[in-house]
Prior knowledge:
The strands form 3 sheets. The chain has a 6-stranded mixed β-sheet, with helices on both faces. The protein has a 4-stranded antiparallel β-sheet with strand order 2-1-4-5. It has a single domain, classed as 3-Layer(aba) Sandwich (Rossmann fold). The mean pLDDT is 91. It is built from 10 helices and 12 strands. Helix 3 runs parallel beside helix 6, helix 5 packs across helix 6 and helix 6 (145-157) runs parallel beside helix 7. It is an alpha/beta fold. The structure holds adenosine-5'-diphosphate and magnesium ion. Residues 16, 21, 39, 41-47 line the site of adenosine-5'-diphosphate.
Amino acid sequence: MVSPVLIRFEEVTLAYDGVPAVEHASLDVPAGAFVGVLGPNGSGKSTLLRGILGLLTPSRGRIFVGDLCCHELAKVRLEIGYVPQSSHVDPHFPARVLDVVLMGLYPGLGLLRRPGRPHRAKAMECLEAVGMADLARRPIGHLSGGQRQRVSIARALVRDPKILLLDEPYSGLDVQSQCSVMELIANTHEQRGLTTLMVTHDVNLVLPHLDLVLALNRRVFAYGPPNEALVKETLEAMYGAAIHVHEAHGRPFVIAGDTHGG
Ligand code: ADP
Ligand code: MG
């Protein structure tokens, strides 16, 4: 059975002050798909996610999320879990882990309402799901990068979203944390039946879990199942650099730069 389309881009251009960051992008994301978004720095990956969130309106074309389009997307934003590209956290930032997760509920709470017991229970449940319940009272600035990423994921899940958008969720983490965060994301996607788009520099780690790969450098260079999208010539055109695509264990493996003897 073919899943219905949940996110659709029709000839979309997203621009800042008239300068396009994404151009003529058309793609359909079926409900339940796990999509990896790949591309060099500045290629419009984060911009694409902002388009889905309705934070940036297309200057041309249309973005649909479910039945809603363009300026209506603010309405669905509450149904989308978003893990933004991680930024530096001040170690003295006066918030505890649980408070950070509760922040994920604020937009729907209204300005004057404070989170109550059911909200805290929900936030704790999400911390449990990412293996961080024990550290709920710890100041956020005292956590490791991997632990902070887990908290960001818990915050993104606190409204039970249908869609999860992750922007380079394991960049800057050590190899072991990268693997465990990746495993958490893959399990979360699977168990919650999410539609997931994940921006990443390192496609190899996520590849076994992906249904679709989007290769983006301002325009869409390839979009399809990993075996079709990850083609040497396409990736070289997109990155403007030498790329090798090897096959191991029946799936592609992407290596950037000149390699010898391979
Ligand atoms: P990526 O996430 O792939 O690194 P981005 O989507 O962040 O790329 O950026 C794509 C292009 O848009 C870049 O040229 C970047 O400089 C530009 N850009 C991103 N954010 C803004 C902004 N807020 N204002 C102006 N230009 C921006
Ligand atoms: Mg980015």
